Recover the amino acids of this structure.
């Protein structure tokens, strides 16, 4: 799956809010070694560097275009291309930070214990993931992909998923001495033509659209756009309200 940094950054401010809320939960933490798992264009990684300027910081991502965008701004951050599913730290990090990435990876029952196990003593795993998969923007997408015109091309596409919050509680508690887990729904006020479709084109729609040629992709987007408009109509002022739920946890080893 290839990412488009420009499309992703169209809603940069709204996408940044959950990362800022996650950063606000660290209190007096003073990590010396930080890894940003799934750093993308590096916006959040640079916030980590501003918060802890003396720390050695590594940004990990598997997408070359996103890393190129991240590295286009000079910094002391070490940008590395790697797949999180098989990544191993060379030196135990004090903070593993992951914003809106781990939902793309399967087997959280295996992945999260492996990540916690790489932390330094008293290290922290801080994670934010979308939890919007039962809401219209995601539900309609799955339904369309399963219908006859699209089923052969899109029926097996995975959009990402997460476990119920209670499952993360049960999974992480035995591994940590302190766990803070919560959900937040962000009520984004978006502007422009079909802003929810444009939002989704930067993330969740990517694996669907890359399996369709130009004309089929346009027909698929037209059907998606029509159904979304019935659920999320544009307000008289031209904006569209887009509620988006996210799951957070901060686990201290």
């Amino acid at each position: 799956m290839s990412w488009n940094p420009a499309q992703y950054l169209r809603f940069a401010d709204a996408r940044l809010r959950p990362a800022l809320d996650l950063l606000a939960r660290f209190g007096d933490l003073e990590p010396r070694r930080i890894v940003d798992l799934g750093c993308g264009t590096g916006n959040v990684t640079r916030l980590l560097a501003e918060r802890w300027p003396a720390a050695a910081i590594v940004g990990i991502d598997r997408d070359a275009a996103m890393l190129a965008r991240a590295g286009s701004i000079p910094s002391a951050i070490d940008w590395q291309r790697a797949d999180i599913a098989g990544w191993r730290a060379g030196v135990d990090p004090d903070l593993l930070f992951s914003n809106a990435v781990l939902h793309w990876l399967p087997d959280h029952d295996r992945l999260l214990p492996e990540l916690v196990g790489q932390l330094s003593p008293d290290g922290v795993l801080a994670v934010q993931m979308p939890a919007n998969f039962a809401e219209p923007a995601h539900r309609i997408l799955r339904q369309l992909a399963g219908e006859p015109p699209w089923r052969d091309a899109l029926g097996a596409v995975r959009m990402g998923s997460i476990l119920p919050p209670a499952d993360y509680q049960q999974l992480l508690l035995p591994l940590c001495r302190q766990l803070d887990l919560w959900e937040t729904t962000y009520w984004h006020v978006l502007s422009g033509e079909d802003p929810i479709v444009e939002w989704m084109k930067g993330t969740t729609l990517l694996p669907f659209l890359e399996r369709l040629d130009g004309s089929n992709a346009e027909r698929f987007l037209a059907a998606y756009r029509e159904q979304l408009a019935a659920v999320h109509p544009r307000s008289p002022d031209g904006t569209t309200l887009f509620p988006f739920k996210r799951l957070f946890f901060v686990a201290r080893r």
In short: The chain has one domain: 5-252. The first helix runs from residue 5 to 8.
